[in-house]
From TrEMBL:
Bilayer-crossing regions: none
Annotated GO CC locations: cytosol
InterPro entries associated with the record: Cof (IPR000150), HAD-like_sf (IPR036412), HAD-SF_hydro_IIB (IPR006379), HAD_sf (IPR023214)
PANTHER family associated with the record: HAD SUPERFAMILY HYDROLASE-LIKE, TYPE 3, PHOSPHOSERINE PHOSPHATASE
Protein name: HAD family phosphatase
Family matches, as CDD domains: HAD_Pase
Species assigned in the record: Anaeromonas frigoriresistens
Length: 273
């Protein structure tokens, strides 16, 4: 099979447990791109965070960010797809989080909004302290999110809610699932990702392939968690990380090594090199 595109998740897949890209992974991606294959970063992260790693590995192709809610060619600022959450639903989601006293954050394509510096927002804050100005994530701390959303015309592509109490997270997921206008997936066992209804990495990948006239049989997708399952289902060849959840590994065509042991590089070598 002659492949034309590889879609790679970031956290738990391309990145090791220290949040870094190994030299082996970077070399393998370069060798694949040298063969004319498009390597697409496909992540739940905010777009500006994905840009940093796309540049680091030398990828000049579209980025699927916010679990598929925002897709853009970063090198020429060409937005291909975007699906923000309806403003009314944004307010309803925030009300649920506030009622349950949960940490949450949300973002558009370039600004990270939060009430508290904790969990992921604290990680990004600490990341910023080590970075050059052009690599920093814009974090905006807001005291009253509902009021802020009401008074500002912003496009929110994704919410993330996190808590150490997994049962509490599951109860909130059940409550949110009553809203038919939103999509809910998990990218980590103690968190939920909320997007506009129908948004997924798989749907974004399918639309991207339509734009570039690439057949699904010519696509490899590599991931580790629930939010990656849709793109693995779309791709002709699906690769799960050894450190991934059982559901992803059971579905995949092939299970590669862990994210700490160059699993992405080994998958590329198997199918491409």
């Amino acid at each position: 099979m002659k492949y034309k595109l590889i879609a790679i998740d970031m956290d738990g897949t391309l990145l090791d447990n220290e949040g870094k890209v190994s030299e082996e992974n970077r070399k393998a991606i370069k060798m694949a791109t040298d063969k004319g294959i498009q390597v697409v970063i496909s992540t739940g992260r905010i777009f500006t965070s994905a840009i940093y790693f796309a540049k680091f590995v030398g990828v000049i192709t579209p980025i699927i960010a916010c679990n598929g809610a925002y897709v853009s060619e970063y090198h020429r600022e060409n937005v291909l797809l975007h699906h923000p959450i309806n403003k009314e639903d944004v307010q309803k989601i925030i009300e649920v989080f506030e009622k349950n006293n949960l940490y949450y954050h949300f973002y558009d394509n370039e600004i990270f909004y939060t009430k508290d510096l904790d969990y992921n927002s604290l990680k990004y804050y600490e990341w910023n302290e080590k970075q050059k100005e052009e690599n920093k994530i814009h974090i905006e701390i807001i005291n009253n999110p509902i009021e802020f959303v009401h008074n500002n015309d912003i496009k929110i592509y994704k919410f993330v809610v996190m808590d150490k109490d997994i049962e509490k997270i599951m109860r909130v997921r059940k409550e949110l699932s009553l809203n038919e206008n939103i999509e809910i997936v998990s990218s980590w066992h103690s968190s939920l990702d909320i997007m506009y209804k129908g948004v997924s990495k798989g749907k974004a990948l399918k639309e991207l392939c339509n734009i570039y006239d690439i057949k699904r049989e010519e696509v490899i997708a590599i991931g580790d968690n629930e939010n990656d399952l849709s793109m693995l289902e779309f791709a002709g060849t699906s690769v799960a990380m050894e450190n991934g959840i059982d559901l992803v590994k059971e579905y995949a065509t092939f299970v590669t090594d862990t994210n700490d042991n160059d699993g992405v590089a080994k998958a590329i070598k198997k199918y491409i090199l």
